[in-house]
Structures are given as structure tokens and as C-alpha cells.
Write the C-alpha cells for this entry.
Amino acid sequence: MSHSADSSTPTIQVPGPFTGRRKNLPVSSLVGARLPSWAPYAAGVAAVAVAIGLRWLLSWTGWGTAFWTAALLFVIGFTAWSFSVEGRRRAKDRFASTLIYASFVAAVVPLLLILFYIGVKGFSVFSADFFTKSMNGVTSRQEGGGLYHALIGTLELVAIASVIALPIGIFTAIYLVEYGRGKFARAVTFFVDVMTGVPSIVAGLFVYTFLLLGFGMRPFGFAGALALAILMIPVAVRSSEEMLKLVPRDLREASYALGVPKWRTILKVVLPTAMSGLITSSLLAIARITGETAPLILLVGYTARINYDPFSGDMATLPMLVWDQLGKRAGTTSNDLTEARAWGAALTLVLLVLILNVGARLLARLFQPKAR
Amino acid sequence: MAKRIDVDDVNVYYSDFLAVEGASINIAPLTVTAFIGPSGCGKSTFLRVLNRMHEVIPGGRVSGSVMLDGEDLYGPGVDPVNVRRTVGMVFQKANPFPTMSIYDNVIAGYKIAGTRKNKSETDDIVERSLKGANLWEEVKQRLTRPGAGLSGGQQQRLCIARAIAVEPSVLLMDEPCSALDPISTLAIEDLISELKSSYTIVIVTHNMQQAARVSDRTAFFNLAGVGQPGKLVEYDDTTKIFSNPNEKATEDYISGRFG
């Protein structure tokens, strides 16, 4: 604590709220003692320094132990320092803040690393050829080729799955929100909830047993689209249901009070009001199944050729291209060329999902009921 | 065009719970009737019975008869949708449709219901209704703007315009001014006095002074006790209710001894 020159009341240095400059305030029951604003950084540096010192002293190998020691020292030391200067309540706050920030970093850093890694590795193989050529005739040791066949395969299958799953999802949601009362509605909700957890291989196995084994067919694109639709329906139902529930009840009542029948109220009032939310939830459902691989392994197979027909023959898809290029399909290993192509396909998938997500937000903005 | 309402021994239920018991009332055409009473006594519930909105709530049901010019609204085979076209309603919180412009909001009663009207007809309806709701001058330059962009009082008048656009015989108003400032309230009260010459109006209000200002006759609802159903206690000319009521409960409520 520092004493100001012209008064005998003890004062402390407190960081100002907006400018961070120090202000001399008297210590009173309202103003508590505070750590200086550089305190966290000082504590961090000290913890790292001590950890490095310990590593040298105790001859630890690698950096793992040092890292965790530094982290532990920081948490304990900083909290203790805060406790001695600022008091119990502030110390608890510091401790919780430290943990929360650490969790945030732990969550975000791997994500950023993955994106960065995919971006750098995948981008190196991007070219005009990469997006317009297929892998037909290109062996694993040759350069060249592209993912056009896989790209249109993924786009086609996702489109077919959406055309099947989205109407079913939205209409089920309309039933649950507008009409559903009693046991049947509760059963539907329960089974939809269960289906959101169905593993994708199980959905694939279901279609495999029915279509491929049952009718003795060979893999073809539409079978995969069916499995993807099965995976998509519960997601579409749940999120559409939430969007429809957001439409305020008094809008429906206003419409009924005008003498409008229920189905017309749903069509002309509820759906337009929920439209931006329904678009968002649909695009998110699409983004969810775009990268699903397990059903494709069973049902769609893979080919190096371009195949536009979803009803006959194997189709290539982006996840399966990754799998093929890494050699897993043929039981061989990968090399630099194939690995680069696999990264390219992975990056394309990520970009596709990104475009869908951004598109969802933009469309939602466009369709939002405007206030002015 | 305005009709009389005759209610005979109506019980209103929420599933098994009796909310209003044995209510009977006769409302003459082209009058304004106010329903007053403490919170939770069933006046809004009873109001919603008059246009069959009560059954929109899951478990809502009604016994007894409600006659509109001699026709029982709850008779066998009566379509609630038709009832609601004849008996319009304005709600406490103004609820213009957010995806529609002011113009579309006013003719929503026709547009959403799918009744075909050509442009000149809808223009006429919009102008007539907005003039009837005292909103025409304020919005005639911006009919294509969203309905949700108006002030609270304007939104409420828009909802009134929307309700009268379909030319109902009766207009029900559930605390239309409780969410509004005094200036807007005055505007709507003036509007009610004008609308009286074309419609039968029933208004639920928490504000006793408003009931005294606006209505010809007043009905006082009350609860017998906690958990008991609400009852219509007294129904008489407004001047009599507010100066010399018959029932003690009415007098206690009017003079503020409870409520």
C-alpha cells in the first residue's frame, strides 16, 4: 500500500476501470485491495520459470511434466497470491476464471490446429484440374487426377437424402407442435430422440440388409442416400420442432380469431414466421450428414470413374476418396501423392460444410421478419 | 348487422377444473358491455367462450348455450371457424403478423383464409378498415412497410382494423389498452365510442375508470373463494353499477376494498 503525500489515510493502487491507469483510492470497507493488472502474466512467467528450473534440476525428459507442473504451479500460486492480497471471494473468482479460460483454450486450440493443418496440407493440392478431373486411370504412384467424381457423388447423394429427409422432418415437426397430443405424439418424440443417437454404421447396416442382401443388389448410390436420409430425419425433426415452437402462441390465436382454419394458419402464418429458422435447421442437418462415411462403405462402394447415375453401380464420394487414397480400401499403404489428395478431399469436405453453415446464416438473415 | 348475444347457464372448464360457473347474460346489439372483476375471476375466459376461442386451449370445454341472434354457437354441427368470422377479437398484446406488411395485415382475414379478392376490392377494404380504426392518416403513406414497425398504440389499432376488416357482427376486446400509454388508451377509447354505432362490443378491462368511461352496461365477475369457480355476480347499467350496485361484493370491488 502506498501513502499519499497529503493525507494520512492509507491508499492502494487500483487499476482504473477504462484506462487502466492507476488511481490512488483510500482503503475502506467499500474499496478492497486488488492485485495489479499485470499479476496474471507475472504469475504465469514465474510458474513457467520455476517449472523449467525444476526440469533442469531433476533432469526430466521431454516437456510434458514441465508443462503440467507449470500449469499446476500457476493455478495454485496465482490463487494463493490473490487470496493473500484480495481476500477469499476474489481468490475464488480468480481460480474459477483460470479454469474457465483454460477450458476455453483446451477446446479451441485443437480445433484451430485441425483447421490449420487441413488447410495447409489440403490447399497444396488444389488446382483447376483437381476440381474437374476424376481419378480414372491415375494410379496411386502417378500425379494428377482430381476429385470431380467424388464431389458430384457427395453432392448428389446429399441432395437426394435431403429431398427425402427434410420434408419428412418438417412435416413430423408440424405434427408434433401443432397437432400432437397424447400417447402417440409422446411415442413419436421418444423414438425420434432415440434415433438421433443411432450410429451411422447401424443405419447403413439396416439399408444394407434390406436392399442389398434382401434384393441381392450390388452397391449403388441411392442406397447410401437412403441411409443418410435415415440419419438426417431425427436431426431435422428436432431442430424444426424447436423453430416451430419459437413462433409465439398469440400469432396463431390472432389467426384463429379471424376465422382462419387451422391448416391455413400453419401454412400462411406459422411456417412463414418460422421460415428463417427452418432454413437454418435444414442446412445444419445437411451439414451433419455430408461427411458420414460408414453407410457409404457398405452401400455405395467406390469407383475412380465418374458415375452420374445413383441407381446403378458404385459412386465415388469425398469421404470414400479419402479412404481409398489412404490405401485402406485395397489394403495397401499410402504415399505422398495419395496423402496429398486425401488432404485435398478432406479440405473440400470442410469447405463444403463451411459454405453450408455460412449460407444457412445468410439465408436466415434474409428471411427474418423485418421490423422496419 | 350487429347481433345480440344471449348466454344461458354456461359452465367453462379447463379439463376437469370448473373456471366459470352458471354464467348467464343478455347483451343488446350496438352496445358496449364491460366485464370487470379481480384477477383470475374468469372474465377473459368467459369472453373467449363467446367466439369459441376457449376450446383452442387443450382441455377447454364449455357447457350451456351461447346464442347469437337466436343461433346457438355451440349447437351441433356448428363450425368454430365460421363463428370466429362473425365474432371478432382483439387481444391484450397487439399481435400483427410479423412477416406481413401493414396492408397485408389488414386484409389478413381474407388473404390467409384464401378468399379471393381483386386489388380494387382489397384497397377499399384496407382503407375502410384503417379509417374505421383511426389509423389511416398515420399509415397511408407506408402501407407496404412491415406491420411490426409501428408503435404499441398503432399496432393495437392495426389489430382492430384487421378485426373489423372481415366485418364481424360482434367485437370482443380482451384488455386492449392494458399494454398502452394513456394517450394511446384515449385514442382507443374514442375509437370504441365510434365503433359502437356499427358493432356490438364486449370489453374486458382491469381499469374500472375505463369501464365507467366507455361502456353502457357492466358485468361484475368474482371468485367465491380460492380454488372456487368464477361467477357473474351482477350485470346492470354502468351508471347503476358504479353508483348504487345491488350486491355487496360489487360495491366492495368498486370502492376498492379488494381487487
